[in-house]
## 1
Amino acid sequence: MLARALSLAALLASTSLAGPAFAQGAPAAAVPLPAGQGKELVEGVCTACHQVREIQRSMGYSKEGWKELAATMIDLSKTPDQREEIISYLATHFPEGKNPRPAKQVDGDQQIAFKQWTMPSLGQRSRDPVQGKDGKIWYVGQFGNVIGWINPDTNEIREYPLPSGSYPHNVTLDKDGNAWWTGNKNGTIGKFDPKTEKNTVYKMPDPKVKDPHTAEFDQKGILWFSAQHSQHVGRLDPATGDIKVWPLQTPKAQPYSVKIDSKGNVWVSCNGAPCLIKIDPVTFEISEFSLPLAGTTVRRIDIGPDDRVWYVNSGRGRLGVYDPATGLAKEWDSPSGRTSHPYGIAVIDGIVWYNESNVRPDMLVRFDPKTEKFQSWPIPSGGIHAGIVRHMRPTKEGNLLIHQSSTNRITLVTPRPPLTR
Ligand code: HEC
């Protein structure tokens, strides 16, 4: 097991409190923390991976809750006095109920079960679980710079460090079981071979493409990817290692999710503008389609069985579907409303699953397009509610893999009765 628990002692010993393994270059917060005993410790210890904004906009917790949440991110057990000061400060200034952001839960007939695993590296931002043919569930820990797998039958978990500075955002599997990850911080895409436990790293051909984000294989084994802040999309041919990249014309399009339809067309969502993008896999022609509502931004998409493109309208708190045959989109308000920020999405056997990430708890939502009915559940995250789903994908049986970004948890959602494809 990889020993990568970040300790307070190690943090305080380093000259810069933003330890190199986790540094996100977090600048000083725009709004300072309230004065009080423990403020400096919190500012020092809790900004190694993110800004204090995460604390300020949290829902607020009891002392026990803060203790549990902090323990998923940093090991303070060896410095109990400082831990007490940090936890007391947090519970005093950000008590339970301070910033509730409540969800609107919708009841219904569907039963589901959650099975949850906790990943070993603390504060790792575990994400993007995906199941291989052998049943193993792969994931990456973006802040922890790790790739790993869970064996759901034995509950064994393995984690491997990635080349320094990669900060993997996404993992996807090829037909031979290699795990391909995107180096979101250093302009690379990597292939991890589980047999040799070695990485092959591919560098972007253009230094402007700094942040490979999400990648997905098409039916021919070509890896298509987005680079959100670099405003590019690209393709990597694993047979030759050749990489092609294209800039997007729409200002602030922020290409994000990538999915392939049944004909091999590549669909990309825009996280900064009301658009969807289609790439022709043969001619490389890039087409852009506008979505109707101003303020629309789309984190993730999935393709339905009829090749319609289901999307979360994150900016407007809605669920939508775009029909390429007619050029028309249809949308529904998400149960928790305008600011619920729907995020991950997966269409499984015609049923749409997604999450509402800006409410607490983070809600898992089910939508049946036939009846247009919603149902939703709070996603468990230990004894507290923290963290969100940033990507969801089906298992080979048709169950659903999700995760919780704050608490290192990967979760299997199984509808009852269970699906057996
Ligand atoms: C090793 C990295 C790391 C350190 C150190 C760290 N965190 Fe976090 N924290 C995370 C990650 C990862 C997330 C999830 C961010 C996301 O969803 O993108 C998070 C999110 C949070 C959230 C948001 C919870 C929610 O509602 O989802 C709070 C609050 C928080 N951290 C508090 C703290 C406090 C308090 C400390 C110091 C005791 C701390 N963090 C130190 C990694 C870290």
## 2
Amino acid sequence: MNISSLMAKVFAGIALILLTYGFIIPSVSFNGTLERIKDNKVENIPSYVYPIWNFYQKGKYIGINTQKEARGNLKKMIEISEEIGVPSLPIWNFSLEAPNYPKEAFPYGLPVYIHFDGLSGEVHEMNTINHYVGMASMERGGVYESFLAPYALIFLAMLFMLFIIYDNKWVNRFMVIPVLLPFIFLGIYSYWLYWFGHNLHAGAITIKPFTPVILGDGKVAQFTTHAYPVVGFWVLLAISIFSLIAWWLKSKSLKKQPSKKATPLQHYIFIITLLVGIGVSAHVLKTDIEVDTLGKISTLINSSKVKPLTITETSNSTKEQKEAILKERENQRIEQETKIKSLENRAGSVGKFKVSTMYKSNCAPCHGASGEGNIGPKLVELNKDELTKKTLNLKASEDEMHIAVFEYLSDTDMKELVEEIATFKDQ
Ligand code: HEC
């Protein structure tokens, strides 16, 4: 073996270690854990998951509401039903800044981290916002990709092993996959961003289809968005560079010294590696079957299908079809009610305060159940004249946040609403 070939193996080895440490260990071990928590089957979580999650959580984003003793402690996090993210290295960060997330309380804005195998950060809060603008919940993005991630990562590790074990031109070409890895990620990520911005359903407000920014700062409605690569992406880039160097060194050495026939020892090592790879994949598969990952994915996809708000009935539709339509409507109504309920709860003033249904369903989602402000600013302190002037201005300027609600309201409706809101401060 010459020096270039040896160096090639060292570089491939470093790339393999980075891949294993940053992605394979956390994603393989954590696979199925979130599903088990959701299904109330915490007892089925293998004990090794806890120290691994706790270890990988060090130095990561922690929800601002998370209790001190629960930070970096998966057991505690589950006990207090905290939002739990996947432990693999986060690759991309997407965050929002908005008036209702003040810098003092939200120094990182409202961040969500994208991983190969899932998400972490303020996913729940972000989903609530996505819901307002009619965007699907974040988990919907890359469902199959994150399901396949552990398998793909194991496969990639096998390719590295193949490269390290054999000196062969043909095996060399596989290096193109790890070299392209960061770009494959970016491609899939961009596709999903496009998908999210172009599969909008009727939310509390309607926005025009758009593609969220992939890198840098942008604006969606009144939110400032930031999107940047984080640690996982730099590790991917390092893996890519090391793989490229390894590939180049190996090609150079093969040119000088064409490959010899592989020895039985090489085959022997490869068979062991293969068995380990198959074993680990089988373990992931067993977990996926047990927690019914595919079933959960199809439920998620069905629940986030873009639903037309009115379903046209034709005269020749059968009884079952009619029943299905009625059921669908009822579901939509319940969904709408639950949405409003949860928003009221968030605003924390159910019962005490009486507001009209018109206010509740049109303005409360953003201005709070009693006008105290939520995503939109406080309205309580404005008097009737200010309210009239401001609403008229918003209407005239076709303000993005209001165009959808104002469209459905007549001038009399608007007048009544303004009169109602003006009484809020006395209640
Ligand atoms: C989707 C969220 C959303 C909905 C729904 C909404 N607003 Fe707003 N509203 C905002 C935001 C955000 C602002 C801040 C200005 C902006 O960025 O458009 C605002 C500002 C206002 C203001 C000006 C407040 C000020 O102090 O300058 C008024 C008045 C107002 N909204 C009235 C209403 C009324 C009345 C309704 C219901 C018919 C309504 N809004 C529904 C989000 C919303």
